[in-house]
Amino acid sequence: MVKCFVLISMAILTTLLNSCGSYPRLLRFPFDPGGRGLNSRSSELTPQVTSSYIIFVSDRNGSQDVYLFNAQKRQLIDLPGLNSLDEVASHPSISEDGRYIVFATSRQGKSNIYLYDRQNQQKRSLTENLQAEVRNPMINADGDRIVFEIAQDGQWDIMVYDRAGNPID
């Protein structure tokens, strides 16, 4: 089953990487049984790709956390203060320059959207004051707009926020 997850993750990643360049290409990243590379024995979920980075969620350390891989240097990047043992992370997205990361979390049945600034190593909630379920955040290439889904009034709607956490009409 683990091999199946790895193969599916690689297929999705290959599809994403092939669609991002000017020509189709297959990037081969080695399998690392120690979990220090892109491919491991664990599940790698919801990858998002920029020209230099691959961001994804994995359960390789016993909890569902966000990981960042530098595709050019072929190594994982530390994200101090981003992951928390009492939260389940999902759907990460990264700005083109790699400075800003948004992702969803679930903690004790409450969902939240966080923005992480790699330069300052700070994580802050964008949605803690919303009394609604939120999911599937994405950040634009410049890192100044965040979009996510919100369940209000019995339906899912789209919200757009600026990086400061203010709604944009």
Layout of SSEs?
Layout: H1 2-20, E1 44-49, E2 53-58, E3 65-70, E4 75-77, E5 88-94, E6 100-107, E7 110-117, E8 122-125, E9 133-139, E10 145-152, E11 155-162
Shape: globular
Helix content: 10-25%
Structural class: mainly beta
Distance between the termini: 45 Å
Care to describe what's here?
With 169 residues, the chain is mainly β. The chain is 11% helix and 42% strand. The strands form three sheets. A four-stranded antiparallel sheet has the order 1-2-3-4, with helices on one face. Residues 1-20 have low confidence and may be disordered.
Features of this protein?
single chain; mainly beta; four-stranded antiparallel β-sheet; 1 helix; 11% helix; 42% strand; globular; disordered N terminus
Short structural summary:
This protein has 169 residues and is mainly β. The chain contains 1 helix and 11 strands, in the order H-E-E-E-E-E-E-E-E-E-E-E.
